[in-house]
Structure formats: structure tokens, C-alpha cells
Amino acid sequence: MSPIDNSKEFSTTIFESPKSRRAALKSIASGMTIAALSGCIKIRKPKQKIVTYTNEPENLIPGEPNYYATSHEITNNVESLIVTSHEGRPTKIDGNPNYPLNKGKSSAHIQAELQQLYDPDRLKENTIDNKKVSSSKIKSLLNKLNRQEDTIIVLPKTTSILNQGLLSQLNNSKTHIYYIDPVNIDNETNSVKQVTGSYGYLDFDYSESKFILNFENDFLSTNFNSIKSLRDYTEFQKDIQFISFASNLKVTDSKANSIFKTSLPEQEKVIAYIAQKIISKFGNYQDKSELNKLVFEPPVTSKDKLDKIVNQLIKHRSRSIVRIGESHSVNIHKVIFMLNKLLGNINNTIKINSTAQYKSRFLSAVGFEESISDIQSKLLNEKIRRIISLDIDLTRFIPNIETLIKNTDIIYLTNYKNEFTKLANTVISKTHFLEDWGLLLSKEGHVLIQQPLINKLYNDNFSINEVLLSITNKKTTTYQFLKQTLIKIKRNLYELKRNGFVKGKTRRLNINQIKLSPTKENTSQLNLTIQPSYQMIDGRYSNNAWLNETPDPTTKLTWGNAFIISHEFSEKHNVKTGNIIQIKTDKSTISGPVLILPGQDNSTITLHYGFGKIVDGRFSGFGINADKFIPNKAYSVLDIVKTNETITLADTQMNHGMDEESLAASGIENRIDKILQIKTEDEIKHPKKKKYHIHSLFKELEYKGEYQWGMSIDLNSCLGCNACVVSCQAENNIPVVGRDQIIIGREMSWIRIDRYYIENENNEATINFMPVACVHCENAPCEQVCPVNATVHDDEGLNVMTYNRCIGTRYCANNCPYKVRRFNFFDWHQKNPQSVKKDRIHIFDYFREPAKSTQMQFNPEVTIRMRGVMEKCTYCLQRISKAKIKSKNNNDPNVIDQLETACQQSCPTNAIVFGDISNENSKISKKRKSKRRYDLLQTDLNTKPRTIYLAKVKKPIWNSKERSNGYH
Amino acid sequence: MKIKNQLFPKWINFLPAIVLIILLAVLGSVVHIFWFWFSPKNLNVGYQPTQPIPFSHAKHVNQVGIDCRYCHSNVDKAAHSNIPATETCMNCHKQVKTDSKYIKKLTKHYNENKPVEWIKVHMLPDYVYFNHSAHVNVGVSCLQCHGKVNKMDVVYQAKSLSMGWCLECHREPEKYLWPVEEITNLDFKPDNQLKLGLELKEKYNVNPGEACSVCHR
């Protein structure tokens, strides 16, 4: 099996840029021939058929979507979801508005699960010894497995009640079950276990919090944190002072009022220093003696500032939060628990709740690293007869596994071909979660139902439940087993189907005595830190085109990752962005391109985990593969070798700049104050009013429609999480373009999230996010230059794009000051490597089309754009039209109030608000009256944008002049 | 006097005129081809495909007296006006005319759970998002777009369904509006359409709009 060559796939289309002049002439000539031929025959559209139901399903109106509740677990969180289904095809996944944790909001990962479902690269059939076999054969094989032989079962951590119920039946002395999740919060979980005696999770109450001190924790990213915690933080952030110690700028640091650029070892010293001060004040004899086990040098960070932080912590006792990231050891986690306990935060701002469990064996199971070393030693020393892997590619985590498993029977359930399928005797293809029943238990105690939305796309696929049912010799289907389980746990199936979930309760845990173990400081001078990727998490989305093309919020890289280094480091080693370096660490050697970013600690190199070739799919394989390392860990760097190679990184930040001289990147500096406004509270309360004398030379349009649409984007709430970007992509059928096209600035995403590094008054680099989509100017510059009236205004204030009129001059995109217009340089759906040859039924047919499964994913309410036309944000016109018609048909104005655009619907922090600005009582009208409001570039260009921005709020916390009431 | 070795024959004198006439003819035919021949009025109107089962609207509407909405039941609820499920036909045809060749075919489809593949008559381009419910609920009769279906034995396309044709009504809806109760009564004839239309336009709050965003997304 050879890895599939992308470039070959591309070159089979005639839309590939011609290699020579001769080839170009050829394609022009053939095009003209086809055009000429088409005039000779009578043109009738091809016959279309209407295929009706034999018996009409209940509650189904053809053309109208239905909505079903289901649920899904991603990393630590179980989310209840509502899936939009068009005649049985799931086309959009969103949160469940009634579910207390997400309240209808979602993340980029939830949105992108659609792409996982319809991925044509998914494994379709089962094989035994590379021979295709039917699903009944697999079933009988699983039925006959001898359970008295030594077996290792590996699977991801799962809260599935069905899985856990079945696994507990497999439990005997010969069966060893391991939970493999490289991206995890084992350190936090273990420390909670050690300080409270049972398994629990931390629940933060930001409503009462005044001061947050954070060490390397990315608690505002959607990777590991529930959508609720993001929403809660932004809701109550007004009174919160937030100081962050970070080795590199993460999403969370965009909200920090002060950021200390510190390496991990330095952070430990700072923690020890602060702990010393707090414990000497509040701690008892025992705490002091425990703390003495930490042997750390004093930190190099300014003592003055650290003392101020200590004073703040003391001042805001029981109103503060100290948080710590996974990169720190369990011991340091326990120090933080000690701090929070002494400061009285536990049970006030920090609640430790017990994790809900129903036979949840993974809770008591060992962590990721111990599991791996356990498996390794078992394979080495004991006679393991069989490995049953349920969607875990062990070759990623155990080096040279092929030498260890020579006589072992391997049964592998997987979505994709990968390295482990080559070693496995039996390969079973896996379903997507939208294809089978399930029952999940969130850590908060809610029971959620997983309803299938679609029949199995490939009939031979198995779900984890089905495999376990076969192994345990149950003759039932998953649905029957689900019903039996529900009777056992006394839950009503119909209630679950209707609501999606049943609420649960958890217990509060209390901290016992905290015992530390002796720790010495880490003396390494230069660290390579592996962090989970914002898109790939642990590589599970490796073949997901949407997530591959979604820029990382901080690095803005698409299709891959890079070693993030600081400016100082780059000068010291004489490397530039794109240069390929080789890093030798204590564990392994790794090479790849570097990326220089502000805010990066000088002695830390950061690499995102989950990239590189992980599965055998056409989108997997971009970036540096960090599988030799464990995420959330630091490795000391022994040597760095600079190679002569250089590659261009697919960085989107500079692709659509709003600078005045857009060719020169320097232009942005003059304008940044107008583009992204960051104001202190004083500035917001007492705005400096300036008069601008601008008026249009053109006759301004009047808008007389019944509704006037407008949007507001709150930059203070935006966390750059990309949920809106992927949601928009799913809703509006936006294609992906691939790495090479991104490099030449041709990405199609309608929303881009700009990232700006801005120096604050303490000379710290801060990271700021700004989502920009079409702002629907009332005086739109694009409309004035279109030669064919393809972009015009409607009477409701929408700047509409008529694809059929567009001839592709791209004048509008050039004249757009916001750079939000996207041009279809190719028919991207045809250029996509997953596209297939089309059956010709008509002379005008194109040559390729999206794969059959991908076609099922498209939203039928939105036109698929073809080559040569411009497109851009439409404010989700299909949703507006639907709401308007529904409101008029039912005579119900509430429909308009409930109207949400796709980006707004998914935004976890409600940063995006959309609605009718002519209605004084609408949410959007209230936002427009905000004192933080500013109209992007209005003072320069008089464009009168309908999308307004609300300025980000800054709180200078070291400068005593700014605030008279504190910080001394 | 006859000049010897004339380079060109005499008729050449008429050449400019001939060329002009030919050019005009070519131009005329090009205009004709594009204006008339390529126009939806020529290409689309009268399209009458043969259906797998020759269902006669005339018979069902005029003789039996079935309302349009008995079969096209979602026309006032959804964007699509549904073609009925085979089940709907079988409501009657389990008893009626069961010995007919075509009803036997229909029954076979029904019993084998195999859908009847009807041929689509009225086709709009994919970038047009026509909504039946938005029109039917404000008094645009079936007749305005589909013609006198109650007189058709085999359904054909009666109107061009071109954008210009749509706009005729979007600009002056009063010329076409009927009371909502009468929209499926295809033989309805108002005494004074304009007066009725203006009244109804007020009553139903009809302001269709001509912006691109009304129909295209």
C-alpha cells in the first residue's frame, strides 16, 4: 500500500494550470470546440426525475429539514447536539439549545464532524489477512474469540454507558483493558484524586471571581474545556483581572491583562515563590513542611511584580482563581490546590465535583503514559495472544511495535487505513457516531442519547458497540441493548429522544491533606514543548479537509504546523520563518520548518501535536509529525541543526490584509488603531469625540425594506475559536482549496479571523482576534466598480452577489477595503483530490464532481458556486428568506427575532449578534447603542458598514495612574 | 464600347448590395436564433414529457373533482410542492379501476415498495429558490404559473418560467392576485381583476420585491 500521491490526483483534471504554451492552446481549442458543438444541437435540459416515497414518512415534508437530538464526546466533554437532516442526510451539526452546558453553541470540531461522516477516504470494507470478508464472517469470528486467552483491549477513553457496560462483562484476569488518549488531562485528574481521594473535575465559577492567575493553562480554548466555561468567562469578565504566565501565546492569553513570557521551569520557580509567600502568611506548620520538599531557585521574574500578584491574591481571597496547565507535573498541580485552598477559593470560585460514573472503569484506569509502558512490558514479557484495538493506532505510540507482536493476533477497528492496519490480521471498518445508537454519560451526570441520523453509509461497517456485542456473544442489536440498558438505569427512551438528554447531579468533593513529593527543578536550558493542536487535537481529525484548512487561531497556519520560536531565538540561531531545522532532544530527533512569533518564550520551542501522516487519507500528511513525543510535555533540547532547506508555510494572516497599501505589509501599523480598537474603561466612558467631514460623491441609497439587517461582533468576547469559520463552511457549501492555493492567497473561507499582535503599555506582546466577514456596507465600494451589476444592494441592506452575472473581473475584491471577497479561481469542488469523474449525461457537464458521499453533505438551500465567480458572506440569506416566509405564513414576528446566522448560532461566547436594526427592541439594536461600538474604517472611507464592532476592553494593571484603587 | 479583358464581370457592381443583404440576413437569423430560438418561450413552453404512468389531471380534477391540495399537500407549507407518495394514489385506487393496465403497474410499484419515477415538467435552475408556500398563501393561484392544469390530459409547461416572466408579477402583483380561497379553482374569473388585486395586495400585505436576494442565494 503506497501513500496516495496528491499531485498526481490533481493533474488528471484539465483545470490544472497548463504546463506549457502548447498545452494551454490545446485546452483553449478543445474548450472552443465544445462551445461550438453545443450550438449545433437542440439544447434541452436533461430529463430530471421526481422520485416519490411509496409511503410518506411521518413528520417529513420534502424540502424542509428535520432536526434530531444526538450527542457526541470530544476529549473531556460530552455535548448534546441537534443535527439538521435534509431527507435523511445530516447537513449540519449544532449544539442543543436546551442542554445546560452548550446552550446550542458548538465548536469547530463539532461542526467538522460532518466532514468525518462523509469522508470518501473512510474504510468501507472488512478484511482478514488482506482478503475482503463479509460482515457476518467478522461477526462469527468475534463470537468465537477465546476469552480465556491473554487479550489486550485498547480504546479511547469513553463515557459511553453501553461500551462500559459491555466492557465490564469482558472483565476477567486474562483481559487487560487500556484507555489510550494522548491528549488528556491526566495530571489534573490525578491531582484531584490525590487531594480529594476520589475522581472529580474542576468547575470554575467566574461570576464571583475578581482575579485569575494562570500558569500555561489554555482554559479558553475549545479543545478541553466545555463550551459553558468559555461562555461563563466572557459573561463575567468585566470584573476579572487576569494575569497569565505563558511560554507561548495561546488562545487564552488573548484575554490576559498582563502576560509573563516565561518558560515552564521558570513558571515552576514562580509558583514556588508565590506559594512560599502565601503559605508563610496563611499556612500551618504542616503546609510549610510540605512546601519545603520543593527545591527551587528563586525566579528571575521581577520580584516587585510577583509581590504585587501575591498582594492581589491576598486582597481577593476567596474571590480569586489560580489555574495550572497540563504541562506541569502532578506535584505542581497539588501545590496549586494548596494555594487555592489557603486562599479560600475552593468551594467559592473553584468547585471540585465528583465525576459521574456508571461502571466507568476508565476513571480508575492508569493514565496514558503508564498504559503505554504497561502494554509495552506486557507484550515484551508476557504471552499476549490477542490485541483488540478499537480505533487506536498503536504504532503511533509504541515504537517498533511490529517486533513485539509477531505472534499476536490483532483485531483492529478503524475508520481509515493506517500503519496499524498493515500489521493487523483482522481489519474492521468503523462507523461514524451519527450511524449507530449510543448512550453517553457526561462527567456532570447528564445522560445523553446518541441517535443515528443516517443508515450506515457502508453496510459492512461496525460501531464499537457492535464489536463489543459480538465479542460478548450477544445476539441483540445496539438499539435493543440500549433499550435494555435504559430499563436498568431507569431512564425513559422517549424522553431522551425528545430532549436529547436527562439532567443529572454530582456530588461536591472536599480537599483532604495535601501531600507533596520531593521535587527538584528542571535545569534544562531549552525546551521543546508539545501542545495539542487546536484543529487536530490528537490527530483524530487528520483527514478532515475543513479543519486542515481552518487556520490555527494563534499561528494562522493551515495544512500543517511548525516549530514556534521567538525573535531572539531566531537571531541567536540565525534562522528565519520557513527554514527547516533539526531538533535533537533527549527523546528523539525531529525536523521541520520554524515560525517566528511574538510572545514566544526565548527558551521554549513549541510544536503542535496531531499533524503529519496519521492515516492513509488524501488530506492527512501535512506538517510535522510529533508522534514520537507525548503532548503536554516538555523535552529538553540537546542540539539544533539548521539545514539549507526552506519551505513556504501556508500562513493566512497576510493573505487578506486591511492595510492601506495592501501590497506592503507595513501599512497596517498606521491603521491598526482604527481596525482593532482596544480601549480602557475610562476611554469607553468618556470617548474623545472627533468630527469627520465625510460625505459620499455618489447618491446614497435609501433602504426602505421591511427589515434592515445588521450584525455586531464583540471583540471583547471573541476567543478566536474558529467555531464560526467551520460553521459557515458547513452552512454555505464553502470549498477547500488546498495548501498550494492558500500560499498564493486563494482561501475561500468567508469569515477570516485576523490575529494581531499588539504591544501593551507594559511592553508585552498581546494576541488579539478579530473576525471579519463581509460587513455589508451601505455605501459599498465593491458595487461602484462592478461593470456588470453582479453585486448590488437589496432594499434590506444586504450587499448581494449575483453569481450568474459575475464575469470574474475581480474589481470588487480589489476595491473592497475589508478584503472579504473570495474568488473561485477554479471549480474547487472539481479540483479537490477527493472528487470523482462525472458520468456524462449532458454536453455541458463538467468533468469531475465531488465524491458521491461528499455530495450528500451539501446544504441544498445554498447555490454551489462555479469557477470564475466572486463570492462572500451573505448574512446567511437562505436563513433570512426562510424566516421571512415563515413569519409571514404563520403571521408570527417572533420568527424574525429567533433568526440566527450560522456563525452566530455556533459562537460559544455569543460574540456575534445578528438581527433587524430597524426594530428598536431587537438584540442587535441594543448592541448598536453600546459605547464600545465602532464602525470599521468608517471614518476613513464612509462605507457605513452594517456589521459593527464592539471594542475590546483593556485593563492596564501595573500602571497605578490608570486605576486609583489598587495594585500597590 | 466594350472594354476588353475586363477584370471583373458586371454583376460585381451589385456585390456591395448582395454582401449587405447577406450580412443583414445572417444578422437577422443570429438575432432570431438567440432572441426567439434560445428564449425560454421557445425552449421551455410546451415541454410535455411522457410520464411512466399517464396520469390525467383533467380526469382527476374535472371529473372526480379532487382539489389540487389533496395530492400536492405541502404546497402551502413548504418551498417544494410535493408529488404525492404512491400511498396517496392507492387511497382510491385500491378500489377504483383496479383492472386497468396502468393501475396494475402502480399497484406493483406500491407492493414492491419501488418509487414511480415521474418526469419533472417544471424545472427552474438550481440557483433559483422558488417557494410555493410564500406564493400560495398570498393568493397566487396555481394557474398563474402552471396554466390550466385541469384541462390537461398530459401536463405540459404552459409558461416560460423565465426571470423576466417572474418579474412581470413581482412588479405588478395586483394583476394576478386572487382570494386565497379560490387559488385552486382554476376556472375562477374575477369581474375586475385590477380592483380585486389592489384590495388583496393590501389585505395580504403583498410587496414581493425585485431584489436579487428575493429568489437567489
Q: Distance N terminus to C terminus of chain A? A: 67 Å
What oligomeric state do these chains adopt? heterodimer
Low-confidence stretches of chain B: none
Helix amount of chain A? 25-40%
- Which class do the helix and strand fractions of chain B yield? mainly alpha
What is the structural class of chain A?
A: alpha/beta
Outline type of chain A = globular
Terminal CA distance of chain B reads: 76 Å
Strand order of the largest sheet of chain A: 6-5-18-17-16-7-8
Shape descriptor of chain B reads: extended
Strand portion of chain B: under 5%
Let me know the largest β-sheet of chain A. Answer: 7 strands, mixed
Tell me how many strands of chain B there are.
Answer: 1
* Number of contiguous helices of chain B: 10
Structure description:
The complex is a heterodimer of chains A (968) and B (217). By secondary structure, chain A is α/β, with parallel strands linked by helices. Chain A has a seven-stranded mixed sheet. Chain A has a six-stranded mixed sheet with strand order 24-26-25-28-23-27. In chain A, strands 12-11-10-14 form a four-stranded parallel sheet. In chain A, β16 (386-390), α14 and β17 (409-414) form a beta-alpha-beta unit. The termini of chain A are far apart. In chain A, 49% of the residues are buried. Residues 1-15 and 961-968 of chain A have low confidence and may be disordered. With 217 residues, chain B is an all-alpha fold. In chain B, α5 (86-93) crosses α6. The relative contact order of chain B is 0.12. At the A-B interface, β1 and α29 of A face α5 and β1 of B.
